[in-house]
Request: fold
Amino acid sequence: MNRFMKLVNFELSRFMKIYLVLVAMTVVVQVAGVIVKANEYIGKANQAINEDGLSMAQFVEQNGVMSFMDFTRSLWFMGPIAICAAALIFYIFMIWYRDWFGKNTFIYRLLMLPTARLNVYLAKAASIVLMVLGLVSIQLIILPLENRVFKWMVPVDFRSDMTLGQIVNWNYLSILVPQTFVEFILYYGAGFMAVSVLFTAILFERSFRWKGLLLGIGYVTLSVIIFALPVLSELFLNRNYFYPLEMLGLEVALGLIVTFMSIWMGHYLLTKKITV
Amino acid sequence: MKRYWRLISIVTVVVLTVGTFYIQSSLAAGGYPEFSIENISGDEEVIESVILNGSYNTGTGMHVAVDVKPEDSEYFNKQSFFERLQGMYSSEVKRLQEEYRSFMRGKAGSLTSYLETEETLAYADVNNQSVRTSGSEMEFDIAVLDKENGETTAFKAPVPNRAMYHQVYVEDVQMADNTLRVITRNFSRNGENVLHLYHFDITKQEITGDERIAMTGENEENAMSDFMKVRESDQTAPSDYIIFRENSPANQNEQGYIVYNLETGEKQQLDFSGRDVLLSHNEHLYLSTGDQILQYNIETDEMTAEIDLPAQGDGETQEQSPPLFHVTNDRMYLLTSIPGQKMGQNIVVIDTTSGETLYNGKVTSEKPVDQHGSLHIFDIQIR
Reply:
């Protein structure tokens, strides 16, 4: 356990600089976005009221009130999230390949450690999951702050207020932070499954090189087919045979099978087939 | 411990933030106004089983589905994950799924496909209508459950002349002796819209009859007309009649109604001089005149009751839109909006035989609603 913690901590510290840059970028761009968006609306209102001679009520009637959603639907909000997501997806690959292609083939030392090689695999997976959850948490922390800034800038007659729960429930944000804790576990469990499948595919490539690349792609395809089997069968038969709860149970079971299959396969490749 | 500060700090931040968020959101009320039904006059018991299905519009283009009950309201986004997972079916279909789990497996969720009597539960739908397949693969999916011995008869049969059709919808299912009657609306490839009645012999498991009840474009006059099935008080209950409204854009004032008698095969035209039929309930039709509800008997072809509606607050009873209406067990439930008010809706319960008002109430919110918000109710459900 101690060795595993050490490895996770080690993996985290290797990405910490870029990670903190991502966090800082998210905070700065999003807060700036709230200010820019609010100013845009207020500017429009000022112009309409001062120059075109509209009353406040008329302006609101024509343009609608501003809500926090006007900001969350803009690139100012979505941009940083997209960049963070892309960076972490990229790092799922880099977390392995940097050990081979870094300054001094670091994977030598990792594999020589007096600990089960599976720990290396699991530590990398855990640090990816932790970093994703960390970014989601940061978003949850700064959302109320941004909401506060929004309320500062837009006078009460021009805005429609939303609580944190309402903001999160709308649009794609509910994919990152689902409504209930059960869904949170299900979504991020599925995320962990995807990471383990990709890791195993990467290890296929690392073990057998060009041939391994094909094996890796084949492995990903197989995993997708296994996981999507109930959905695919209903799609082909054009019939919803399973009740929703049964479908959920099946998917959870298949998800667990795919995850354990990936971890077991990764363990096998790391101990028996890996080449440096 | 100090060596692990990165790991410890990330885990702490994640656990605290995510934990706080979910604990808070499970405790918080959701931030939307709570609605209930305020008693003006009458007995509370009368509306105990009433559920008003509606949606709350926050004023920023967001709609949240909400059920208003006499005591409180229930927002759909406050439901647990498992409740929401099963929430895609109507409460009636959910009840059927619970009671007849294996019969209902793999069957579509539209209530028009079902018939439920004391002895049987029947189902009819048209399969293979997805975008991928052309109409030439359409087939009827028929299943009849004998409630007494639990036996299911199920078979498939190709839709007659299916190459002609673009889409076929099941509008109603009825049964008499061993014959299942399926009323469908067939959209032809040439733009026609035909109401069909198919007969299925359950013992022989085959189609024994195919009639056209009505079609668009029969003559010059109704070339562009359309048919709308009149809402039934209980979609799955047996009925001897199929009632359609004929809309023709040419003369908007003359909405005719077509009553088709399933027993005799007779077709009857009804004209209520522009009045809307709100609902059909067994052999009765209910119409609204604005301040009265008329009850019409199809069998005897006469108006059997005129029920006065209680006067609204300021005497302005004329409605732009017809009121929401529901009938069960000799009681009618009526929801009318109060003119000029975004939020207030009146609910009235009237005894259909005596015409007596049993209950009068108003939908209200606990707190004054956000100035931009509004509540829209689109269905009355009696549990």
Q: What stands out?
A: Chain A has two domains: 1-173, 178-276. Chain A has ten helices and two strands. The beta strands of chain A are 66-67, 159-160. Residues 197 and 220 of chain A are 6 Å apart (CA to CA).
